[in-house]
Amino acid sequence: MGGIGKTTLARKLYNHPFAKECFNCVAWVFISQEWSTRHVLSEILRMVGGQGETYELHAKLSAEELVDKLRDILKKKAYLIVLDDVWRREALKEILPALPLSEDINRESKIIITTRNREIVHFENIQQQLFVHEPQPLSKEESRELFSKVALGDRTDCNMEDFRSLGMVMLKNCGGLPLALVA
User: Fold this and answer.
1) Which among 82, 98, 127 is the end of a domain?
2) DSSP assignment, residue 128?
3) Domain count, the chain
4) Which residues, other chains included, contact 61 with Cβ-Cβ below 8 Å and sequence gap of 6+?
5) What is the β-pairing status of strands 79-86 and 110-115?
6) Residue 95: its pLDDT value, please?
7) Who's near 133: CB < 8 A, 6+ residues apart?
8) Range of the domain at 154
9) What residues does the NB-ARC domain cover (predicted)?
């Protein structure tokens, strides 16, 4: 479900000081409906491999060489990689083999996957290492609090009765989705 806060939650974890302390390297890659495995692997390499890693250098490598190079770098590190907005299982099947999780040091590594479709993470070689967190829509009370905070802020100069009736209509239409409430 879009707008429920998956990317926002992943971004909070990714940007938390704890992530910088616990992981040798971090990478965030937006996958989307149209993805290129080469581009995704190249982007991760650029973020975790240091200053010498460039798109131009990666363009000269085969897909297998990109996978091998990324695996060689990551197998020596504890890493956090976010694969954001994954729409298709095929994307994960092509990208995940480049991200080692079985080496001793990699036991501390984490891969966060955000997706609108829970089914894409259901395939054999990922199940044993998978923890699924499904954010739920906000309750009526949480929705009202968020909407009031965004709509009013610290203002006290408006007619609260008018605001309440309009707010109730808007809250009903937003269905507890945080993005709809703040947009």
Assistant:
1) 127
2) T
3) 2
4) 69
5) parallel
6) 92
7) 9
8) 140-182
9) 1-152
Q: Which residues pair with 81 in a beta bridge?
A: 27, 111
> Which is more confidently placed, 57 or 37?
37
Q: Please tell me whether residues 94 and 160 are part of one structural domain.
A: no
CATH number at residue 83: 3.40.50.300
Q: Name the one residue in this structure whose structure tokens are 């926002």.
A: 8
Whether 106 maps to a domain, the answer reads: yes
Per-residue pLDDT tens digits for 123-145: 655 555 566 677 777 788 887 78
pLDDT band at 117 (very low <50, low <70, confident <90, very high): confident
Which tokens in the block code for residue 51?
């200053």
Cα(82)–Cα(112) distance, integer angstroms: 5
Q: What is the CA radius of gyration of the chain?
A: 20
144 and 123, same structural domain? no
At 166, give phi and psi (nearest 5°): -65, -40
Q: Which of 47, 10, 22 is closest to 108 using CA atoms?
A: 22
Strand partners of residue 82: 28, 112
- Please give the model's pTM, rounded to 2 decimal places: 0.75
d(CA 112, CA 101) in angstroms, rounded, equals: 13
